[in-house]
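If your schedule permits, I should be very grateful for your opinion on a structural question. Please examine both parts with care and let me know of anything in them that strikes you as inconsistent. The record follows directly beneath this note:
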Amino acid sequence: MVVPGRVYRSAQLTGNNYTADTARLIGDDLNDVLHRYHIRTVINLRGGNMANDYYRQEIADCRRYGAVHVDISMSAHHLPPPQSLRQLLAAFDSLPYPILFHCQGGADRSGLVGALYLNIYQGVPLQEALRRELTWRYGHFAFTAAGRMNDFFALYQRTSHGLSLRDWINTVYPNLYPKVSRSAASSN
């Protein structure tokens, strides 16, 4: 849980097999979580593909419960594309709460988004937001390929020159992204 009663994070909630936000959600499927936490919006950070059973089930559960469903494509192994971050901010700005966002395992992309939310929308200092959301406690390990989530925030800290994270995402990051994502690709 990122902000109780308002914003939740999870792994993919299909069937009765994934640990969501906290131990209380173990064994819940998306339909149960939609009902129990009165979720009005689900943000899928994996992107969408109707060829996948889990995705079709997620769409059906959201439709049945009347929750808005949004797909925002991000990778755990690459810096987030600027257009995905803009779409994410627009979702947080305009869609009904409570919101649940998820990726596949609930660790990396969800950690990045949780830290963004806490800093931008709750005013939590960035280092505290990172300690709370982008952490091994959720299964995120910065020394793996998913360390790109940490690289995103390090890039912000190096290049923001006092801009808020939101302003940096909207003004500076779109110009940096092509350069830093190319250099990361060539170093792999």
